[in-house]
Amino acid sequence: MPNLEPLSFLYRDAALVAVAKPSGLAVHRGWSRERVVALTLAPDRLGAPVFPLHPLDRATSGALLLALDPEAARRLAAQFAAGRVRKRYLALVRGIPPASGVIDHPVPRRPGGPRVPAVTAFRRLATWERYALLEVVPRTGRLHQIRRHLKHASHPLIGDVRYGKGEHNRLFRERFGLHRLALHALELACDHPADGRPLSIVAPVPEDLAGPLRAMGMAVPGASGVLDRGGHRG
Q1: Are 145 and 118 in contact (CB under 8 A)?
Q2: Model pTM?
Q3: Which residue numbers are catalytic?
Q4: What is the Cα–Cα distance from 180 to 60, expressed in whole angstroms?
Q5: Which of 72, 117, 215, 218 could bridge 126 with an S-S bond, Cβ 3.0-4.6 Å?
Q6: Helix (H) or strand (E) holding 152
Q7: Residue 176 to residues 46, 72, 172, 185, 187, Cα–Cα distance (Å)
Q8: Which H helix or E strand runs over 81?
Q9: In this predicted model, what pLDDT tens digit does every residue of 141-178 receive, in sequence order?
């Protein structure tokens, strides 16, 4: 069970809020039978309704962006639909991929739907024995895209009970205490819906993933904060 209190806020203004979602917390009640989800926790903390903008798998931790009014929701949704929101993830995988690459492989947009074009870029950050830490940038937004693409490339995510391998998941549970999917939404970059100001919202890697990475001798990227796209704090 994830640690649900408190739900960390990364950024907030009159138009939008960004929260750090823990692994194991569903975004929406429609995606979970649990009573507590991100879309109930956030309004309780804010004292105001929120508008969801993009999916984030229950098992994935990291930056989740929510709008605070319908107009901000409309403008941000248009950015997501046009592919103008940059997402950057950290992924721990089986095997040693090339230093960088692009996976171009169609996947469904929704459960049971037809396959549609999907593209994911990656860059290798570190290795430990026969495993690697990747920076992953999906160029399209499809159902379980990163998980499906890494499996397709024969580098499944550690901790992925659906697309991964049980023997590797067990190794990391027993040796490093990793009891979650090793996928973290590190950064979301978008234009502010009110004034067009570029924002880059970074979610720190939570300890349930950062601890195992450090135990493998890997540096843990990312720091909490809001940056513009030039890397300057806003």
Answers
A1: yes
A2: 0.91
A3: 57
A4: 8
A5: 218
A6: helix 145-152
A7: 36, 42, 5, 21, 25
A8: helix 70-81
A9: 888 999 999 999 999 999 999 999 999 999 999 999 99
